[in-house]
Amino acid sequence: MTTIAYHHKSKTIAVDSRYTRGDIIETDKGRKTKTNDRGLWVFAGASCDYDALMLLNHGDKVDIRPACGAILISDGDAYSVDTDNNGVCSIEILTEDLTVGSGQYFAMAAMDFGKSAKEAVKYAATRDIYTGGKVHEFKLK
After folding, report:
1. Residue 15's beta-bridge partner residues?
2. pTM above 0.90?
């Protein structure tokens, strides 16, 4: 899957670059970001659903739930973007640390112990087989 870490105090987001299919590593050189008029999106989950999630607004309901979530960087703020089990989209401003993806628990624990977002994702990659490759870091402006 992926690990994304948002470190609120430093206003940074980090994400790995590993793409997997089942138990197979496809590449450790993937890009899990997209940009549109709303800002920079950092994704975890099925890449085939990125565009579908980017079209949703807060409160929109969909019949087929995108199998991904994201952190959106927009106008200097970070937002969590996801759909719930009922297919309702939630876009919430982040006011504290957040981790997303298969290595989220490892990354959050690392940040709890003072690691940066990038260091947290690197640590998650030592424990989570679905996290790996180069870690990309983005700063909110």
Report:
1. 4, 136
2. yes
